[in-house]
Specification:
about 475 residues; DUF6444; Transposase_IS66_central; Transposase, IS66 family
């Protein structure tokens, strides 16, 4: 750009000719264009600095200190911490008498101070819970051999099928799987805990090798969960990063309220989503990731929580874009509030349904006006993309029972995200296969309120004794969706 050398201490001299006037005007227009580019870049950088978990897909753990303070800031209530006066009491229920391990009796003195005899009429139970001193159990299996007294042929006994061929029994293998898959301990921590709690010493290699047969035994139950999830009427899908060393893979999740199925894949595209969904024909709830868009539009529900975060980002912009974002954000929040009230009424209310139809028309009108007003800039492109996705946000009124958010899938992925932060990820293909299997079992057992350890122990015992696992989880049959009143 041509620079103008002006002395700001005094007014600049007027150009003497028409050519000089044109030169000055052109230079000013170029300067104005560059200034607008710089201003747009500054606004873009300010927007990036303002990004957080409330207006983007960034997880809360990556929020800045300022963002965390703003998120946690609450108005003080003036009450002290802890239980409040008048709150309902929560007391531990007494264990039945037949389940008590030991009973100790404490009687009063037989004679009162006044000289009378004391008659026992009842007792007040006081139960104390404690952990026993634990020690590992060793069973020595002696396999004898002998020779025939006539021909000298050698004969040898054999171990029964139910006896493990290795040094780890089903309880120990199940415990190691529980510590890694449920409580996210590293192999070194499992090694230390084995010695600290049980007095057992196994090498890291032996602990790692114990997961090889466990992975094979988990296969039938893992496949059962996958088949059942794909037959569900409503399912939630989501994905997060999975690392193998320095390579980026992806962990996919397909979940319901009772089941969770995980899958690792090298891709985050439509091929991986298709492998996850398989022959799923129900209603799918997801975020706005385009890999799921091969699913039919009329049975695909986008997450409104993700939409609100996207609109928060637009509302944080300056000028007209921010004002349009505020109106869109207000309409989205009203829709979520009305949708929740409609769901809480168990869908017979025509009043909430009519209100949802009005909010739908309002939201579309605001999007169309914002898209037209902002043209081809960032806000305009965002609004046009929302208009393209518009039908996928409004599946829930046509299919009552469909949630408006994808929280079910996000809650299923959260334990893995924590595990990922506290471990060295996966180092092999075997680890890539083991993690989704153990996560599927753990999360499904948690949702079914079934003990994870006892389930693992049953699977390991069958695998060691029979070589084939016939155990199956009591998964629920698909239930019909609620029907709205006409």
């Amino acid at each position: 750009m041509e620079r103008l050398d002006l002395d700001l201490s005094r007014p600049p001299p007027l150009p003497g000719t028409v050519e000089e006037c044109h030169r000055v005007i052109e230079a000013l227009w170029r300067a104005l264009g560059e200034f607008q580019q710089i201003q747009a870049r500054v606004e873009e950088l300010e927007e990036q600095l303002a990004l957080g978990s409330d207006n983007s897909s960034q997880p809360p753990s990556q929020d800045s200190t300022k963002k965390r303070a703003e998120r946690k800031g609450k108005r003080p209530t003036g009450r002290k911490k802890g239980a409040q006066v008048g709150h309902p009491r929560h007391e531990r229920a007494l264990v039945p008498a037949e389940a008590v391990d030991e009973v100790r009796h404490y009687f009063p003195h037989g004679r009162c101070e006044c000289g009378g005899s004391v008659a026992v009429r009842g007792f007040r139970p006081h139960q104390v819970f404690d952990l026993p001193e634990i020690r590992y159990r060793v069973v020595e299996h002696r396999v004898y051999e002998g020779r025939c007294g006539w021909c000298g042929q050698k004969h040898q006994g054999r171990l029964p099928d139910e006896v493990p061929r290795g040094q780890m029994g089903p309880g120990l293998v199940a415990w190691i799987g529980l510590m890694t898959g449920r409580y996210h301990l590293s192999l070194r921590e499992v090694e230390a805990l084995l010695e600290e709690q049980w007095g057992l010493r196994f090498s890291l290699g032996a602990i790692s090798q114990s997961q090889i047969p466990l992975q094979a035994w988990l296969g039938p139950v893992y496949n059962q969960i996958g088949e059942a999830v794909r037959k569900a009427l409503i399912a939630h899908a989501d994905e997060t990063r999975h690392y193998r060393g320095r390579s980026i893979y992806w962990l996919w999740a397909l979940t319901t309220d009772q089941m969770a199925y995980f899958l690792t894949h090298y891709s985050r595209g439509k091929g991986a989503a298709g492998e996850l969904l398989g022959d799923f024909q129900g209603i799918l709830v997801t975020d706005r990731h385009g890999a799921y868009n091969d699913h039919p539009q009329d049975s695909h529900q986008y997450c409104w929580a993700h939409l609100i975060r996207n609109l928060e980002r637009i509302a944080g912009r300056k000028g007209q874009a921010g004002e349009d974002g505020e109106r869109l954000l207000r309409a989205a929040r009203l829709t979520v509030h009305c949708g929740k009230l409609w769901q809480q009424s168990h869908y017979p209310s025509d009043r909430y349904r009519r209100r949802l139809e009005r909010l739908k028309a309002l939201f579309r009108r605001e999007l169309e006006q914002a898209a037209q007003r902002h043209g081809d800039n960032k806000t305009g492109r965002s609004c046009r993309k929302l208009l393209d996705d518009f039908p996928r946000f409004w599946t829930f009124p046509d299919h009552p029972g469909v949630p408006m958010t994808n929280n079910t899938a996000e809650r299923a992925l959260r334990p893995y995200v924590i595990w990922r932060k506290t471990s060295f990820f996966s180092q092999s293909h075997r680890g890539d296969c083991f993690r989704p299997m153990i996560l599927s079992l753990v999360e499904t057992c948690k949702r079914l309120k079934i003990g994870v350890y006892q389930t693992l122990r049953t699977i390991c015992a069958q695998g060691m004794a029979e070589g084939e696992v016939t155990f199956r989880l009591p998964l629920p049959e698909p239930q019909p969706l609620p029907v709205a009143s006409p």
